[in-house]
Amino acid sequence: MQPLPNESQLIAGAKAGDKQAVSTLYEAYAQAVFRYISYRVESDALAEDLTAEVFLRMVQGLPTYHDSGAPFGAWLYRIAANQIADHYRRNRRAVEPISEEHPTDDTDPLGKAAKNEEQAQLREALSTLSPEFQTLLVLRFMQGLAHTEVAAILGKSDAAIRVMQHRALQALAQALGQTGKARSYLRGGDAP
Amino acid sequence: MSDQFTPQEQFLVERLRRAPQPELNPSAFEAIRLRVLDAVDTPPIPAPRPALPVTTIVVAASVVVIVAALFVVFTQRNTPTTEIPTPSAAPTATLTLSPTASPTPTITPSPTSIATLVPSATPDGTAAVDTVMIIEGQVEAIDGDIVTIFGVEVQILPDDPLLESIHIGDVIRVEGSTTTSGSGVIVIASSHIEPNNTPTPASSDNPPSGAEWSDDGTCLHPPPDWAPANGWRRRCEGAEKNVDKSNNGSGKGNNK
Questions:
Q1: Higher-confidence position of B176 and A92
Q2: Taking CA atoms, which of A142, B171, B221, B255 is between 20 and 30 Å from A192?
């Protein structure tokens, strides 16, 4: 999550109501926010709606946003995490069936199906973990954020994140249905 | 500092890194952009807070009322009650000397002496209430400027002419403020009615012989049996037992 070269100026412009600055910030962060949300909710359609909500909240919150030195993206991820939490509070974890919708890409239908299968499997496994574990695994490994960035988003120390990620990986292994094997190979047994 | 993963953890990490990276499709991406840019012009109105359920409001109101009632009751219990006497509720103590107080129950009834104690207070709301007492009755003793009426010591101003004209047995009415001393209550007289110098024994009590007796303020001349002489007896009977028993009731009285 590298900050944009002129991010401070963009933020200042966006706070002043500069549409171009807002648009640039949106373009820079929209896909990353969507990817994070899509692994935390049941469907891409819902992820789109929540992504839109995140950026609407961004516009709403910009006048009171203070640059504390943390990456702007960290603020957006926190908004996204709150939106997801609100979504589950409203729906009381009424988990929708995993989306069967597929992007319209007919060039490699078999490859696409495999990707969707993998995505659905990971989504389902992640959904059984705590929100903190989900955020950590998605941002740290799927999106490649550094410890410090994840720590800033979760409001924890770097050391805490390093400890948490081991626990999160073990929980994910269990959730992926490898519980028995996971326990043995996490202790140094044969890899599956 | 790089992470140290076990091979198995590394396997999961690699799986996550290779996980499909879903992306907003171009149409959704553009639609969201338009919504966001519209919001720059017209910031979205924050969603109204959900209204509290009626039951919640009713319960909260009930709790407030109960707490308020308990508070009022509690504070009333802890408030010290200051009784401020009002003039309408001024207590009146009436001491009636009955004939049974006389050592000779066979004598003719003596005039009833009534001492009226009327303590009153000005309802000014202050804690130190100055009590005004009115005493009306027979003078029992005179000691300097202290006059005793029915056991209550009344201090008369030293330059008050009353002190010169008053005698034991006179019926006077004094009004003054009270103060406490080591032995009891002292009334400092502020006003008084001229003493009634009528001799204590009323004329109707005198024997047909025309003999009369009057109290000279000392215990040297005891009254005859027919004279009530309540003041003298009250004043001197206790003392004479220790002084001179022979004088008790044996005198003839002072013929005038």
A1: B176
A2: A142
CA distance A149 to chain B (A): 14
Provide, as residue numbers in chain B, all residues whose Cβ is less than 8 Å from the Cβ of A189.
Answer: 8
Cβ pair B22:A119 closer than 8 A: yes
Return the residue in B14, B36, B37, B42 with the most chain A beta carbons within 10 A, the one to mutate for interface testing.
B36
Q: What is the pLDDT along chain A (192 residues), one digit of tens a residue?
A: 677 778 888 999 999 999 999 999 999 999 999 999 999 998 899 999 999 999 999 999 998 888 777 789 999 999 999 999 999 888 865 554 444 444 444 566 666 777 778 888 898 899 999 999 999 999 999 999 999 999 989 989 999 999 999 999 999 999 987 544 444 455 554 444
pLDDT band at B108 (very low <50, low <70, confident <90, very high): very low
For residues A146 and A114, the answer to whether their CB atoms sit within 8 Å is no
Contact A122 B46 (CB under 8 A): no
CB-nearest to B40 from A22, A39, A188 is A22
Interface touch B7/A185, C-beta < 8 Å? yes
* CA–centroid distance for B91 within its chain: 12
Q: Angle CA(B144)–CA(B217)–CA(B154) in degrees, nearest 5?
A: 40
- Find which of B21, B34, B41, B42 to mutate to test the A interface (most A CBs within 10 Å of its CB): B21
The CB density around residue B40, as the number of other CB atoms within 10 Å, is 16
Ramachandran bin of B125, using left for φ above 0, alpha for ψ from -120 to 50, beta for the remaining angles: left
CB B156 within 8 A of CB B143: no
Q: Which phi-psi region, left, alpha or beta, contains residue A101 (left: φ > 0; alpha: ψ -120 to 50)?
A: beta
- Tell me the C-alpha distance between A41 and B185, whole Å: 92
Residue B141 CA to residue B170 CA, distance in Å, equals 10
Token pair recorded at residue B151: 């056991």
The dihedral built from the CA positions of residue B72, B78, B84 and B85, taken in this order, carries a sign that is positive
Taking CB atoms and an 8 Å limit, are B22 and A26 in contact across chains? Answer: no
Q: Do B22 and A44 touch (CB under 8 A)?
A: yes
Cβ neighbours of B56 (radius 10 Å): 10
pTM of the shown model: 0.48
CB contact under 8 A, A103 and B11: no
